[in-house]
Amino acid sequence: MLSYQHAYHAGGPADVHKHMVLAELIAALTVKSRPVSYAETHAGRGLYHLDGAESRKTGEADQGIRRLNPDPATPFGAAYRNIRGEYGPGAYPGSPLLASALLRPGDRSVLMELHPAEHAALVTAMAGRDVAIHRRDGYEGLLALAPMTPRRGLVLVDPSYEVKSEYAEAARFVRALAGKWPQVTVAVWYPLLPAARHTDLRAGFSPLSVTCDEVIFTPAPDRGMYGSGMALINVPFGFGRALKRIHLAAQTIFTPQRPGG
Ligand SMILES: C[S@@+](CC[C@H](N)C(=O)[O-])C[C@H]1O[C@@H](n2cnc3c(N)ncnc32)[C@H](O)[C@@H]1O
């Protein structure tokens, strides 16, 4: 089932939360000069336009990136500024383009995207960049490639959770990946919904040690998604301080703006 389209949610509060954590993880992994591997199981189209019909329909970017005004001294803020400089003020990077702005020549990057149209758009968005792009199931593809060389690396797992079983599937994948590639850092985005299926996801990571950052809309909405979570496995040393900073910044856009506010 591939009906989800990320263009409706690009630059929204949850997307920005995920991207801030992602950027900071890449910055932490690239502090040392040794090359790293980077991979995504669910890449999306790479580049979004916040003036487009999808974005205007939901207005999520107005509550998210347009309110945040990210600090250009942070990895996310610096990469976002560069991408807007390259693609225009309405541009918002998907995770592949954001990662590409932060990775270095010599780092290895592999992206998986199954949807034909999203895959084609991703190929266009990433043209001229040193990345391998597969139109393939991200879980199957990553497990076939793992362990990647260089061994030091990061995998972003960002499913659309269109069906209930995706929570258990994501957890199963992470356990299998960690079994084949014990050194890898893994980041899994998940929504906080009233059905609370994310609790199954978190439980499903066991026996891996997991750090979760969850940002909650305040006040809680009457229905629908009430927050955004990032589960991290093999967190880089000293990452806790960066995570606290991201959490505080993200919380500002999880507090909905009042009319006239
Ligand atoms: C939440 S979006 C990805 C957003 C992207 N990571 C970002 O932050 O910009 C999820 C994407 O996964 C794709 N997808 C769904 N099932 C997949 C699968 N089994 N393997 C690879 N991609 C899949 C969807 O087409 C969609 O583009």
Fold and architecture overview:
This protein is of the alpha/beta class and 261 residues long. The chain has one domain: Rossmann fold (3-Layer(aba) Sandwich), CATH 3.40.50.150. Helix content is 41%, strand content 17%. The protein is built from eleven helices and nine strands. It has helices spanning 13-29, 53-58, 60-63, 65-68, 75-87, 95-102, 116-125, 138-145, 165-180, 198-204, 239-253, and strands spanning 37-40, 47-49, 91-93, 108-112, 132-134, 153-157, 185-192, 210-216, 227-233. A seven-stranded mixed sheet has the order 5-4-1-6-7-9-8, sandwiched between helices. A two-stranded antiparallel sheet has the order 2-3. Helix 9 (165-180) links the parallel strand 6 (153-157) and strand 7 (185-192). Helix 1 (13-29) packs parallel to helix 6, helix 5 crosses helix 6 (95-102) and helix 9 runs parallel beside helix 10 (198-204). The longest helix has 17 residues, at 13-29. The termini are far apart. The mean pLDDT is 95. It binds S-adenosylmethionine. The site of S-adenosylmethionine has 20 residues, from loops.
Radius of gyration, in Å, reads: 17 Å
Briefly, what CATH class? Alpha Beta
Element-level helix/strand string: HEEHHHHEHEHEHEHEHEEH
Count of discrete structural domains: 1
Structural class, please?
alpha/beta
The kinds of small molecule bound in this structure are: S-adenosylmethionine
Straight-line N-to-C gap: 40 Å
Question: Key features?
Answer:
261 residues; alpha/beta; Rossmann fold; two-stranded antiparallel ribbon; 9 strands; globular; binds S-adenosylmethionine
